[in-house]
Model the fold of this input.
Amino acid sequence: MATTCPVDLDTARLRHEIRAIYARVASDPMSEFHFHRGPAYAAERLGYDATALAALPSEATASFAGVANPLRMAALPAGATVVDIGCGAGMDLMLAAGAVGPNGHAIGIDMTEPMAERARASARALGFANVEVRAGDALDLPVDSESVDFVISNGVLNLATDKRHAFGEVFRILKPGGQFLYADIIVASELSESIRRDVDLWTG
Amino acid sequence: MVLESVGFTSLRITEYFDPFGDTSKERVARKYGVRGVNVHALKS
Done:
């Protein structure tokens, strides 16, 4: 699997495209995209608990565009600190915040401000004082080293232009014994150069 | 694997998903074997 962009892929353009597409997902999730969104998709294809999703504000669930289900890998204990990289509108983040409870801490990080604002609004609507959403991206996480019990991420790190660096950041912020609940896409075969240069596919 | 190269241990793929079914990218996803996965990793 390639861990960095092809050298001639314009990474600045890629970051711009990612921001633009996910800002549109935040503002108009019912618009046309080449990937699924929303709570019905999450429940039917990814095994989320439909009842739990129904209890969340639609601001958190309508723009969900994850590709797997990180919270199925571990039960987050009360009082834990969890970071969600690329939290988007906050669906996984709200589920995590509910699990760790008022003595825990759920920190969302997103580089798309409209998404981050939706996550903050959802936390306010749920009365979750243990949620904090920070601006930032996967290559420079605004989180102290060895301060986190769990890191979750769902369909985000495949967008990072340098995956080794992004995974190194996850490793840095986890405490010893911390767990990385990583949800993403994998590719079974080597991609052609034309596919790897296709910004439209990267941003999906 | 990249996760191991940065220090993670006990890597396990715990579950597979089909996030691209019934989308315009389904054909490309099938061709290249693109799937959603849950991966559990530990910082020892």
Remarks:
- The CA atoms of residues 9 and 53 of chain A lie 38 Å apart.
- Residues 11-27 of chain A form the longest helix (17 residues).
